[in-house]
Design a protein that fits this description.
heterodimer, A: about 425 residues, mainly alpha, MetI-like fold, 3 domains, 3-stranded antiparallel beta sheet, B: about 450 residues, flat
Chain lengths: ~425, ~450
Amino acid sequence: MNSNSLKISNENLKRRLNAERRFKFYGVIAISLALIFVLILFTNIISKGYSAFYRTLIEIKIEFNDKVQPEMFKQMSDTEINKLDLYSFSKKNIYSNFPDIEKKSDKKKIIKLFSIEFEEEIKTYINKNKNNLGNTINLYISASDDIDQIHKGNYSRDIPEERRRVSNFQLSIYDELVGQNKVKFEFNLPFFSRGDSREAELAGLGGSLIGSFFTMIIVLLLSFPFGLFGAIYLEEFSKRNRFTDFIEININNLAAVPSIVFGLLGLGILLNTFELPRSTALVGGITLSLMTLPTIIIATRASLRSVPPSIREGALAVGASKVQTVMHHVVPLALPGSITGTIIGIARALGETAPLLLIGMVAFIVDVPSSPLDPSTSLPVQAYLWNDSAERAYEEKTSAAIIILLSFLILFNLIAVFIRRKFETKW
Amino acid sequence: MGLITFFLLVLFAITSFYLGYFRSNRVRVIEKQRPFSLDKYYGYYLAIWSVVPAVIILFAILIFDGFIVKNYVLSEFYSQGIDQSEISLLFTQIENTRNGIKLFNSEDEIIVNAVNKLNYIEGIFDITSIITVFSVSSLFLLYGYRKINLNFDARLIVEKFILIGFFLCSLIAILVTVGIIFSLLYETVRFFSQVPILDFLFGTNWSPQRAFVRDAADAADIENAFGAVPLFSGTFLIAFIAMCVSIPVGLLTAIYMSEYAKSSVRNTAKPIIEILAGIPTVVYGFFAVITIAPFIRSLGGSIGLDVSSESALAAGLVMGIMIIPFVSSLSDDVISSVPQSLREGSYAMGATKSETIKKVIIPAALPGIIGSFLLAVSRAIGETMIVVMAAGLVANLTANPLEASTTITTQIVVILIGDQEFDSPKTMSAFALGLTLFVMTLILNFIALRVVKKYTEKYE
């Protein structure tokens, strides 16, 4: 009887311990799942995007002739050279690199191997070396986006020809060039300086980087002072009454309002009522700063609250006024926390896309903006726009834009962590 | 002009500061007694007097000058009895011509005259406004300067001013809320004057592009085009899928973190999971389009299911991943705040750790956990980029997660992206959707915060 109940309870215990082990195992699985998601996300985007940071160049030979002589460039200024019409000259020279090809349609296919701006690239080369040009020059010019993708191995060559963007003929020419060692990679500097373009090999991040920069400057200028001062008032000076409670509820609610609603606010009030210029970093900055404000207020209040009362009492005891106490003693101690909150808020604003779509920062803009009043896009919006493009070459560009965006966010967060570690006092 | 005025004002403020500073210094020398406040407060006092009225006047000018200039330039057209809409068209033409944009009628005499008139009046306006601003602030400066004497307490006034400034800053939160409600409500009310509210809330057909026709004959068409039920169903379907991912993973993560994990594991794993919350949503959208959707498609294809390339499932799954840290960190806080005595009581009865968690801690923390779920749901409903990129753009009343379906936020973006025509019910419907979204998230957040707050108070 006794041994029997012991047996039952032993079995019971075994079952319970198994349940315990199983439960713990579920927890491990959940955490690993979350960690795996992070890993997949990052490896996926990095593996898709890193190839956008270099580009393919093809070497060609240019022979000057009677009409276009190397000597004539010596007297010309840069702008004069840029105004010259060298299109047919450049084209003929590219053809003469492939002497075996005579059919006109084939020649057209050859020209498609190169970037659409081959004339400009040749001019740039001439401009740079105008004083020591020989009669023949060898230079590298950009490959078209399709050849670029093939050279990087992003396009499969096995799909049937009619579904491929590069014909068999072009592929054979490309292979020939590779065999002659005339195709090389180079760091893709233009990607960081150029504006958007309909030609994938020309599209760059420059415009959106500057647009994001202007937007973030406006967010910083607007949300930090207002957030800081508002938080100081609420935490240090206001008496607790219905009105300040109301403000507090408002702030907490604003922090949870979906970002797209701020876009509607920007559209309804800033664009339609105040008639501020559409698509500009100014409007984007104001909209995003309204969104960032609650974050900053909440962070600043938390760090003001953590300053011990003894600091205030000490200052008051030696005769400082209330404002002096707060401004000279409490705020400096709370500032690191406030700045940390601001940086995190700005990082969030930098990644925000939805409100910007509504205020027109999604336009196709080729020029790099020169002021916050010029139409521009921002980094995440550029990623969204490229993601919408049908051409495969934009896929690596989208990933690259996201890599840049994420590196900025990581940088911001590291700075925030650094400030917190370095300056925050533990009481 | 704006930049010049700004620099002049800064210069003016600095001069006024030193004026006050030296004035107070001189008072001390003459009276052989220290004035009431420190010297610098007299400086601040004068700087405030010189700048604040000037800024207020400048803002007033900024708001009204466009209106006055426009009226002046157009005054002769008004007297000719030209139609209102034609006049405003004319004014844009005048402005464009002035800004160097060549139009078909840029050479017309009326336009050329008006441009000259515009340039003239704006020149006068600029000069007079600068003169007014600086003479007014000089007057105030003089007034303040004369008030400085031995017994004048400048610090009190400066501090009062600072406090008022701080107070105004704290009001911005209210202003933003009012702005949101006003802008949403204004358009929504106009929308509901054209489309009955019940048709909007209970109609099952959403095709706003059909509502371009605004003739009375096609009124029925407009009514039938704005039924938002497919959007609501799509929103909740995707939010439901997202919660199916984030609740189990997030909750189990939270439990493991707070009850089982060693602090070293906790300190490394927690920040990594929180990274998920900091990644911009456009990244998740891209991830859904480029990786998850094709994966689901090929998976569905291999078992004979037809999955559309934009599916609620892909969007929902990725959204679920995004929400994991919200659920896990909020639940973690709640679980950690369950008093230790409850755990120890349970252990003393011989319960294992998992039994304690399941039978004691979870029930005790349940209200808080549910609060965190509600917050996560409100996140999911308001999320935009993932669904815009991955869930489909056409309204489709379906409960099948493998088909494309659209959400409230997607439709707002679809309607308002690019150029919109004003006053069309299509544009206004986006604001009505925005208001619906705002109210929904507000209610969810309100309940969730209430529950969490009440709960945490219980154990403190």
